[in-house]
Specification:
With 386 residues, the chain is mostly helical. The protein has helices spanning 2-13, 19-38, 44-56, 60-78, 84-102, 104-109, 112-137, 152-169, 174-189, 194-216, 225-246, 252-260, 264-282, 286-291, 303-331, 336-352, 362-374. It has a domain at 2-110 and 214-236 and 294-374. 74% of the residues lie in helices and 0% in strands. Helix 1 (2-13) packs parallel to helix 7 (112-137), helix 2 packs parallel to helix 5 and helix 16 (336-352) runs antiparallel to helix 17.
């Protein structure tokens, strides 16, 4: 598990070597099989007890994840609209959910590896930036090519994830302080990814609440932080996508979003794309509108609209149930660091999904899906003799 957690962030840098993603998927699948093997029942009585316990521990999130697995598989095997690569990426995200579900305790024991790996990723990209711009423009120029990543959005996302893991899991020291409050924000603010700049501020707010909770040793207020943050995120999301259904692209809210959240040209182009997709959806069959099973695929750069147009009303309801169920599960997680890391990962991922399809990218979906699985319960204990 330590090796897996260490390698994941580093492998994401080498996006052009796609075979590494497949290697990590095989690695993760092998970990899951190994953990299940360790928990195998020794006799018929234990097998029955294990089945009863498994059924009892099934959550709404489990059901919704299985629903998406079934629908995505149907779309891939019945039609040619979903490529094998895309299907594999989506399935790998669901695989990480089950990794978190069954390996929670092992992940928490090895969480320090996430911080070490994050340090390597952050400073590797910082060095790349220095050699790319040189000494004269290092502190002023904006990088739009993503350094080691393909897009600046991917770079900023990686810096935010690195900030979270270093802040929560790294040992206290000068390097940690410099990385969390200088290096990571410097890399994010000097990129072309506007949405991550907003998410950086929100991440800092959550981080300071965590510090305040540890100082006063009270958790009542912080338990409501995640629902409030997600509610605000929903308000922003509704504001951004509402013109797709109202055909009002010149509202005051849209002008504010254009000015402070996203690039004006990008959001204008995306509205045209989204409204074309809505026209296709409105003129599709009732089966497509309900569950998204059809021989067509609507491509839109927004995870929520992508789910709505391609998985229908039921798919969108299942997405909301996953978010709500995971929120309440995170609140009841006994390990507070896991709770706060889940908060920050959820905010970063769900916020980024406004301007990108995060589930289609292994570097964005894996960690958040792993923590969604982790917060579902306390985890299943490994046998004492292991």
């Amino acid at each position: 598990m330590s090796i897996f957690l260490f390698l994941k962030q580093i492998v994401d840098i080498f996006y052009q070597y796609r075979f590494l993603d497949y290697v990590m998927v095989i690695f993760a699948f092998s970990l899951l099989i190994y953990q299940l093997w360790l928990r195998r029942p020794d006799n018929k009585t234990e097998f029955i007890e294990c089945c009863q316990k498994t059924i009892k521990n099934i959550t709404i999130t489990d059901i919704c994840i299985c629903y998406f697995i079934i629908i995505s598989s149907l779309k891939y095997f019945l039609y040619s609209t979903v490529s094998l690569e895309l299907y594999g990426k989506i399935m790998s995200a669901f695989l990480m959910f089950f990794i978190g579900r069954f390996c929670k305790d092992r992940i928490e024991e090895c969480s320090g590896m996430l911080a070490i790996s994050a340090y390597i990723v952050v400073y590797a990209n910082l060095i790349y930036r220095y050699f790319y711009f040189g000494f004269d423009k290092f502190l002023t120029s904006k990088v739009n090519d993503g350094c080691f990543y393909y897009f600046d959005t991917d770079l900023s996302y990686a810096m935010l994830i690195g900030l979270v893991f270093i802040a929560m899991y790294a040992r206290n020291g000068i390097l940690k302080f410099i990385t969390v409050f200088i290096t990571c924000p410097f890399m994010i603010l000097h990129s072309g990814a506007d949405i991550q700049k907003v998410l950086l501020v929100v991440t800092y707010i959550v981080l300071f609440v965590f510090i305040g909770e540890r100082a006063v040793k009270r958790r009542r207020i912080s338990d409501y932080l995640l629902p409030i943050a997600l509610l605000l995120l929903c308000v922003i999301l509704v504001g951004i996508i509402s013109p797709v259904f109202t055909n009002d692209n010149d509202s005051t809210l849209i002008k504010i979003i254009n000015r402070w959240v996203t690039d004006t040209n990008n959001i204008s182009d995306r509205y045209i794309e989204w409204q074309k997709a809505r026209y296709v959806f409105d003129n599709s069959s009732m089966l497509w509108k309900c569950i998204g099973v059809n021989d067509s695929m609507v491509q839109v750069v927004n995870q929520y609209l992508h789910v709505f147009f391609n998985y229908g009303y039921i798919g969108m309801i299942a997405t909301l149930l996953i978010i709500i169920s995971s929120t309440f599960s995170a609140i009841h997680t006994p390990v507070r660091k896991t709770f706060y890391v889940s908060i920050m990962l959820a905010i970063v991922f769900l916020g980024t999904c406004i301007v990108i399809n995060g589930m289609d990218r292994t570097q964005m979906s894996w960690f958040v899906m792993m923590y969604v699985g982790m917060v579902q319960n306390k985890g299943i204990s490994i046998k004492e003799n292991v």
